[in-house]
Amino acid sequence: MISIDETYLIETLKDLVGINSVNPSLTPEGVGEAEIGAYVAGALKELGLETTLYELELGRVNVVGVLKGTGGGRSLLLNAHMDTVGVDGMRVAPFGAEIREGRLFGRGAQDMKASLAAMMAVAKAFVDARIPLAGDLLITAVADDEYVSIGTEALLRQVQADAAIVTEPTDMSVCRAHRGFIWYDVETLGRAAHGSRYTEGLDANMRMGRFLAQLEMLEQELLTRPGHPLTGPPSLHASILRGGKEISVYAASCLLQIERRTAPGETQAQATAELQAIVDRLAEEDPTFKATLKPTFERAPFVVAPDAAIVQILDRALENRLGETSAHSGQTFWTDAALFADAGMETVLLGPIGFGLHSAEEWVDLASVVDLAYVLAEAAQMYCG
């Protein structure tokens, strides 16, 4: 049986958490992934993997390490992102990597530097044991998952594999589905006029109020839909609202930004049609109601079948390590797994136990990180051959 160097795993995790890799697209203080990417690339090269550091833009990098197979087996890609959200308001030292009662604290501890450390420990285990795999094992660390995933989009132009395990935190449950999202701009149009000239002005903000009232009704209806058994129903929320320029002027326009969370099986066309129906209905009721609706960004939902080879292999590896079968789960949030699946890879999610994603106190359970490394290593042996 392959053995994980637990000291290497924990020390690597401490080093990773100690490196500031806050996403600069989320906060002006973000420094990006250049430093952490250099650390990961150096560590993988030291292990003997064929390692490439890809610069995406200034301060933003991907790292790919390949443990070459002997030939004839399936290739497996392990994936983690290196960026984190910001650290404002944290109650623990964000880069302190303090260990207390079996938990390691810090920004990115669970999301998802623990997973990255586990992946690196898996590579070390195969190198140390000189256990050959038939298929290639790819260790991939990407930028920008926390914003618009420029890292994974670039990665999929750089490498390919038969299957992928995205090691997002799942509390050691095999995650087979998650929701997607669509961003929309809705703009209502009025006519600017002096605030005293009610016969001339048309209030775009008031008209947006009508739209919002109808939008709330749609939101409540969405939550009654069955959605997907693992992800729950679709949902939406009104994220940002801007209208008007001066207090004594009728608002000429009002802009609303909406996020619509989609369940597996839903399409952009369906979601857009439901919003457009509100616009059309309000325009029919009042010819002065003018509005435009535009989808601005989309990420598709993700789902993989329970009988997929990589799912069944992870089930067996988890049972061998933990002594019990893990119930399959779904997530309400989106992950890069959808991009891997869309690229033709059989994809699933599995990650460690922890608490406090994006919050004031984030930690990861170290025993679960060790378990994750063992499970990933056994899954690689079974899948790659």
Give a topology summary.
Blueprint: H1 6-17, H2 34-47, E1 50-57, E2 60-67, E3 76-81, E4 98-100, E5 103-105, H3 109-129, E6 137-142, H4 150-158, E7 163-166, E8 175-178, E9 180-189, H5 204-222, E10 235-243, E11 253-262, H6 268-285, E12 290-299, E13 302-303, H7 309-322, E14 329-331, H8 337-342, E15 346-349, E16 354-355, E17 363-365, H9 366-384
Parallel strand pairs: 3-6, 3-7, 7-15, 8-14
Antiparallel strand pairs: 1-2, 2-6, 4-5, 5-17, 8-13, 9-11, 9-12, 10-11, 16-17
Helix pairs in contact: 1-3, 2-3, 3-9, 5-6, 7-9
Short key terms for the protein model shown above:
385 residues; alpha+beta; Aminopeptidase; Alpha-Beta Plaits; 2 domains; 6-stranded mixed sheet; 34% helix; 25% strand; elongated
What can you see in these coordinates?
With 385 residues, the chain is of the alpha+beta class. It folds into two domains: 257 residues, Zn peptidases (Aminopeptidase); 120 residues, Alpha-Beta Plaits (2-Layer Sandwich). 34% of the residues lie in helices and 25% in strands. The strands form four sheets. A six-stranded mixed sheet has the order 1-2-6-3-7-15, sandwiched between helices. A four-stranded antiparallel sheet has the order 4-5-17-16. It starts with 5 loop residues before the first helix and ends with a helix. The mean pLDDT is 97.
